[in-house]
Amino acid sequence: MLEGGILMSFQTLNPLPLLIGTAFRKRNHQCKARTNSSSTSLQLSSKVPLTDRSGNSWEQGSNTSVITRPNTVGVIGGVSVLSTLIFLEKLACWSSRNGKECPPFVVCSDPVLGKVLPIRHPYRSSHRSRIDQVKMNQELVIENLRRKRNILQLSGAGCFVMPCHLSHAWHSEISEDSSLPFLHVGECMAMELKNSNLKPIHASSSVRIGLLTTDSVLVASYYQHKLQNQGFEVVLLDKATEEHMMVPAVEALNRKDIEGARNLLRIAIHVLLMRAVNVVILASDDLVGILPHNDPLLRKCIDPMDALARSTIQWAETTQEAMAESCDIQLLPLQYQSPPMFLFSQLPPSFLLPKCNKWIHAN
C-alpha cells in the first residue's frame, strides 16, 4: 500500500510514532495490493535512525525538515488507526489518477489516544458513560493532538488534516496559533455540497441535509455549524429515535451482529429521507462500513472523509503549481530529498487493505 515510509518516535511525554511517506510511484495497475511469495514480515521500529541523503541524522528540534516540499500533507492520526489508513488509501488512489503521483505526506499516530477516547464502549456500558469519559479527558486529548501537530510541522508539513470525526470536536483548540492551513472535514463537506448546486425536494423549503453519527453530542454540532453557514438546513434524528436506532446499532456492532446493525441503520436513513433530505451524511466510521457496497441506500449517503481527501489533494496540487510558477520552472514529478525507507516489506495473504471504500483481499 505504501511505497516507502519510516516509523519513529520522539522523546516526549508520550512518544508519538511518525510515518513519513514518499510519492506513490506511477505503475500500470495503481492502488493494488502486492504480496511476495517468501515469508511474511512487518517490522515497525521506533529505534531506526532517521537520516538524510548524506547520512546525517535528523533529530527533533533541528532546523532541518524531514520533507522539504511545500505541498507536504501532515496527517494527524485520531482514535482509529484503521481510519487513518483508509484515508491514506483514498489520498493515494485518487491523487494517482491520470498518471499523477500522490503528494508527500507525514503521519503521526498515537495508540494512546484510543485508550483515552475509546472507539466504542462494550454494549453493556451506556452511551452516556462514553460521552462523560470523553469530556473528562478532553484536556489530555487536546494536548496530545497539539503535540502531534507540532511534530508534523517540524517534519516539514505544509498543511494539516485529521481523518477522525471525534478529533474535530476540538479542531479550533488544536488549530489555534498555527500559521499553516488546517483543513476541517465539516467545512470541506459543506463546500462540496454547496458547489453541487442541490435543489430542494420541496420548492417551499431550503436544501435539507440529513446527519447521522454515533457521537451526536460531540460531532453533530460542528457539522451543523459548517452546513448552516452554507445555507443548508440540517436534519437530525430526534432524541427518542436516536436512542432506539443509533445506540442499538452500535451495540449490535459490538456483539458482531452485523445484520442487526444494518437493519437499524437502514431504518434511520429512511426516517431522514422521509423528512425530505437530499442526502444523508454518515459522520462515523462505524456507520460507513455497515452497509454492503452494493446497497442502493448508499447512493443517498455521503462519507465526509471523501470530501476531506479531495480537498487535501486539491490543496497539494494547487500548492505544487504555485511553487512551480514562482520558480518559473516546468512542473515536474515530485522529487524528494529524503530517501525512501520501507515500512511494509511484505504483506501476508490474509492482510486486508482498504481500497477506496472497498475491502480487497491480498492474494
Automatic annotation (TrEMBL):
Biased segments, Low complexity type: 37-46
The reply on keyword Isomerase is: yes
**UniProt feature, compositional bias: Polar residues:** 53-63
Q: Which InterPro entries match?
A: Asp/Glu/hydantoin_racemase (IPR015942), Asp/Glu_race (IPR001920)
Q: Region annotation Disordered: residue ranges?
A: 35-63
Isomerase recorded as keyword: yes
Give the signal peptide, or none.
Answer: none
Protein name (record)? Aspartate racemase
Q: What organism is this sequence from?
A: Arachis hypogaea (Peanut)
GO molecular-function term, one example from the UniProt record: amino-acid racemase activity
